[in-house]
Amino acid sequence: MNTKDRIISAAIKNFLNFGYEKTSLASIAEEVGIKKPSIYYHFKNKKELFNISLKNILESLEYNILKSTENCTSSKEMFESLFSTLLEFHIQLSVMIDKKHIKPVNIFASLFSTLDAEDYKNSINNYYNLLNNTIIHILSIGQKRNEIRIDIKKDSICEQIMAWFEGLLILSSLYSSFNFNIAKQEFLDNLWILIGKTKKAKTISLGTKW
User: Fold this and answer.
1) Helices 3-22 and 75-96, packing angle to 10 deg
2) pLDDT tens digits, one per residue of 25-71
3) Which long-range contacts (CB under 8 A, 24 or more apart) does 195-199 make?
4) Helix (H) / strand (E) containing 106
5) Of 93-97, 120-124, 132-136, 199-203, the least confident
6) What is the C-alpha to C-alpha distance for residues 12 and 107, in angstroms, rounded to an integer?
7) DSSP letters along 5-52, please?
8) How far apart are alpha carbons 145 and 129 in whole angstroms?
9) 69, 134 in Cβ contact below 8 A?
10) Phi, psi dihedral angles at 104 (to 5 degrees)
């Protein structure tokens, strides 16, 4: 990596680990192996570096979401690949910030602990819109292939799927006894019981299970 990319990589690690306020340009420079003034050659200030770091994270995450379902042969496989991709991405962020226990890191909780998320509303909305559209797309494909129930309300079920998965990420980052890998598989199994075209799914009420 060139110096600018190394600065961004170190910045992402520090912002995720310490939050915006507690991250200093001096510590980022020290990790990269340069002097603090050298950062200003590439970035105006810490805020600009944060903005570019966030953009870098979200673009990478969005790219992974788009690629995750390309080679899948069924809607069930698409869901498994999508959420495995999301999980792996968050785990890699956790590895980056040197977590002792390899668990997914919650991006927005880490980055916006001391910043007003309202300032980044568009970036956050773009990410969730992509995730929403991807899930709706999978649901539509599953219905066309007669793999997913046609009586479900896609918009409503999509929001609930997103909330369910995000809740698992938050629990994993806060609750030390929480095993995300087990929870993720149970999440996928339960999801398919609810939406899949199986005999079992017909006996379950979405209203009581979500």
Assistant:
1) 80
2) 999 999 999 999 999 999 999 999 999 998 998 899 999 999 999 99
3) 195/139, 195/142, 195/148, 195/149, 195/152, 195/157, 196/76, 196/147, 196/148, 196/149, 197/146, 197/147, 197/148, 197/149
4) none
5) 199-203
6) 10
7) HHHHHHHHHHHHHHHHHH--HHHHHHHHTS-HHHHHHH-SSHHHHHHH
8) 24
9) yes
10) -65, 140
Among 34, 49, 32, 174, residue whose Cα is nearest residue 99: 174
Residue 160: closest CA among 196, 124, 186, 135 = 135
Residue type, 49: L
Please name which of 110, 4, 93 lies closest in space to residue 57, comparing C-alpha atoms. Answer: 93
CA distances (Å), origin 82, targets 32, 121, 165, 193: 33, 24, 11, 18
Indicate if the alpha-carbon torsion angle 96, 101, 104, 106 is positive or negative. Answer: negative
Tokens coding 64: 């992974």
Q: What's the token pair of residue 193?
A: 């019981």
- Per-residue pLDDT, 206: 43
Q: pTM to 2 decimals? A: 0.82
199-150-73 Cα angle (round to 5): 80
Sign of CA dihedral 103, 117, 58, 16: negative
Q: Residue 98 carries which DSSP code?
A: T
